[in-house]
Amino acid sequence: MISISNLAKHFGDQTLFEGVSLQFNRGERYGIVGANGCGKSTLLKILTGEEGASDGEVSIPKRAVLGVLGQDHFQYEDTRILDVVMMGDAVLWEAMAEKERILANAETHFDGDRYADLEELIVQADGYGLEARAGEILEGLGIASAVHDQPLSTLSGGFKLRVLLAQTLAAEPDALLLDEPTNHLDILSIRWLEEFLAGYKGVALLISHDHRFLDNVATQIVDVDYGTIKVYPGNYTHFVVAKRQERERREAEIAKREAEIADHKAFVERFRAKATKARQAQSKLKAIDRIEIESLPESSRRYPRFRFEQRRPSGKQVVELIGITKSYGDNLVLHDIDLTVHRGDRVAIIGPNGIGKSTLLKVMMGEVEPDDGLVEWGYETHPGYVAQDHKTQLGGQPGADRQSIDTWLHDCCPEQGIGFVKGALGAVLFTGDESQKKLSALSGGEAARLMFARQAIEKPNVLVLDEPTNHLDLEAIEALVEAIKAYDGTLIFVSHDRWFVNELANRIVEISTDGVQDFAGRYDEYLARAGAD
């Protein structure tokens, strides 16, 4: 379906990848993985023609329709949500629009032949079912039918991006090229998308940092690393094992050859001066020259070293929320919520977007005042809070966004020397001159890593995290999981990442329109009890 030959991409002296020849086939779903900045998004942009390659060729059938997830929702602000989605099938949408224009001008001029052609095209393409399909996709992505006739401007930013995803899916393209499609989706919507993709007949290329999504959807993994791109069969879990085994095999082969050279050299040194062994020594020298040792390139993957520890244990009861109610205008987001967290709990708060999960954490942390209810923190509790919007936390004061990251971090530990701060920054992958970077210049992933560096320094005995995996690559997410597993304090977090939730939570609190479900156990156990997967 899509083939690339000898593909390369360079930015100045930096090589993202080169010498790449691959074919992406119909019926396969390719999960694209690699460190942030390795070239995953660039690969998709080259395939869509948005960006040129430095070398090589891309071959896509001329009539193939590519479904690409857009990001510019502003062009549709005044358009009905259903219409935005139906516009994804551009040919069919234009045919339907032209038919309506012909009908509107029928009293003065009616082009019967053109009308008949359009009607045939619409019927053959199941155009009269397009609106129903668009509605089903929107509902699957968590956008209720009650708002489908409203303009796109009535939705929040995250839901607008869901509409653009629905637009891409509704087009029924021959190939789907989706960059982080699970961003802004809650758990229910991600599961719906997985089911949709399972039934998709074309070729799908998907960039994602969601372990479970990649495991549930991908039939092949496209690994962007070592300055090249390689495809591994199977899902993400299979890929991790296969890549590790491949690296170990290559390292063992190099070690074997190095040992062989060492043996030959030892023989030569031992018998160089012995006339009876001179011929054998020369033979060994020639054998050394014939042995080739490949150099293993350095991986672009980098794992931050997160570390969390509590300054001292808290009291047995960590925090109690009693009758928390909060509205924003006419929108009631929390109603009479009760929650008690005890020392050692690892509480995952889950539920659909817009149900009030982040608001609950903000009320808990005193960032937002509830309309009713009470928050009581327990004895000797010292919570550390990482909000979903890292940049608001980083640059909350006027002019703070112009502060360098080492100065910002030093402000939270003024008793420590600058060497300590540099070490803390180095642990989360800010090395050399990067420590002078301004807060305003940080990417989402960099801002997240900096926030976790601060938590490591402040040593809270309660970690309160709102969507902590947002913006992190797979390596950083895995490092964060290992650090939290080693943390002996209390954890309260909101996340849509099911793998992350299952790895860390020993208690699931699900908020829905029906109330609060509080379950003691892992996420998989909670799903099994609910009869879900």
Structure report:
By secondary structure, this protein is an alpha/beta fold. Helix content is 39%, strand content 22%. It is built from 18 helices and 18 strands. It has helices spanning 40-48, 81-86, 90-104, 112-124, 130-140, 157-170, 187-198, 211-217, 236-271, 278-290, 357-364, 390-394, 405-410, 418-427, 444-458, 474-486, 498-504, 523-530, and strands at residues 2-11, 14-24, 29-33, 55-59, 66-68, 175-179, 203-207, 220-225, 228-233, 317-328, 331-342, 346-350, 372-377, 383-386, 462-466, 490-494, 507-512, 515-520. The chain has a six-stranded mixed β-sheet, with helices on both faces. A six-stranded mixed β-sheet has the order 14-15-16-12-17-18, with helices on both faces. Strand 15, helix 16 and strand 16 (490-494) form a beta-alpha-beta unit. The mean pLDDT is 90.
Annotate the secondary structure layout.
Blueprint: E1 2-11, E2 14-24, E3 29-33, H1 40-48, E4 55-59, E5 66-68, H2 81-86, H3 90-104, H4 112-124, H5 130-140, H6 157-170, E6 175-179, H7 187-198, E7 203-207, H8 211-217, E8 220-225, E9 228-233, H9 236-271, H10 278-290, E10 317-328, E11 331-342, E12 346-350, H11 357-364, E13 372-377, E14 383-386, H12 390-394, H13 405-410, H14 418-427, H15 444-458, E15 462-466, H16 474-486, E16 490-494, H17 498-504, E17 507-512, E18 515-520, H18 523-530
Parallel strand pairs: 3-7, 3-8, 5-6, 6-7, 12-16, 12-17, 14-15, 15-16
Antiparallel strand pairs: 1-2, 1-4, 8-9, 10-11, 10-13, 17-18
